[in-house]
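User: DMSO/TMAO reductase YedYZ molybdopterin-dependent catalytic subunit, Micromonospora vinacea:
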Amino acid sequence: MGVTDRQTGFPQRWWRALERHPPPVPGLTGDRWRSPLRGPWLTAVYGAVLLVGLPLVIITGLLDYAAYGPQFDQALPREVGWLRLPPFDWPTRPSWLFRVTQGLHVTLGIILIPVVLAKLWSVIPKLFSWPPARSLAQVLERLSLLLLVGGILFEIATGLLNIQYAYLFGFDFYTAHYFGAWVFIAAFVAHVTLKLPRMVSALRSRPALRDRRRPGQREPLRAELRTPLAATRPEPPDPDDLVATAPGAPTMSRRGAIALVGGLSVLLGALTIGQTLDGRWRRTALLLPRGREPGTGPNGFPINRTAAAAGIQPDEVGQRWRLTVRGGDRLVTLDRPRLLAMGQHTARLPIACVEGWSTRQTWSGVRLRDLATLVGVDDPASAQIRSLERAGLFNQAILQANQVLDADSLLALRVNGVDLSADHGFPARVIVPALPGVHCTKWVAEITFRTGADG
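Assistant: Predicted structure for DMSO/TMAO reductase YedYZ molybdopterin-dependent catalytic subunit:
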């Protein structure tokens, strides 16, 4: 039967046969990658940064999905099977919660792009090593790496296209991004489980400084960051085959490589974060198209969908507009003058969208809980909001009990002391603390308050 691999039972002659028959593609061998910077230590440094940053991107992304209310089947995608998150009521406090989670998800995701690319650069020789695996265990590891690399590149590409409003997918962004995220999460967890001990040992592998003030303290990172180009040397050969077999002369030190990647990340962050900080900082968000020139005046802040794009006709929001409020067996029809005659409440609240931009404005209108009381629902379990917009993914929304009853949850009629503009939802729109912007329904036509007995 011949000698077999102890781990897999596969005959070793299979792997040797693969080694003797490389693919007929000239130049695709690990020998062509000659940078003396590559090695376990630099790969581990980039990996350590991603080990801290990527879980934050994952967690904020999942929190943002939860903010859309999947328990009401209004988060996209709706049908996710066993990937459905545990249901819970998204809080309304702090009012900036969704602004922070979505802003962090987008901004940090963009900041980490140079680190991701640098990490891929550091391990690229392994992509061309032959044979690609020498055991079944390595085959499984390669498959997990394929899912890991493919998953993160897919998430980056679709995320960037979405925030640029470049809908070139040919598929639904929300569905693809959500399922793609779970593929990446599974591969990421598997990769960290397999490689964490190796990363830790690689970080400790470089020559270290000794701190005279603290004898015995070893600081390999500081030592490497003090190493100039002239003293840069290849790392010793490693079992992962990351070190070049015939390294060339260095053109950059390792500290230069780290500084380059870090500088690019800082630059991307500086050109992105203004969309979340809002105000004068918005003009610095050069990488984001939405709202850099939102207009002037009290209504001069970003929008995602104009009244024209939503198909709102002027006569629908003119004198004949009426709001229908339902609750149990009661129905009340209100025009805008009557709404303005009711008790008005003013709140300064943020509004944030999936693309990462947000803004904070001063809204005035009727509390949603006052409208619920008007139709005899003092303790609403939920509220369904319908818009005049007939098409679109978000022409209606369902609000949880805590979102209806919050003192700052409004049917807003005015913003910053003036009437809403048509593009911002005139004659009335919903504003709720910490609610995703797409569920702050514009051009509201009907509100139905439900009790627990309504199901």
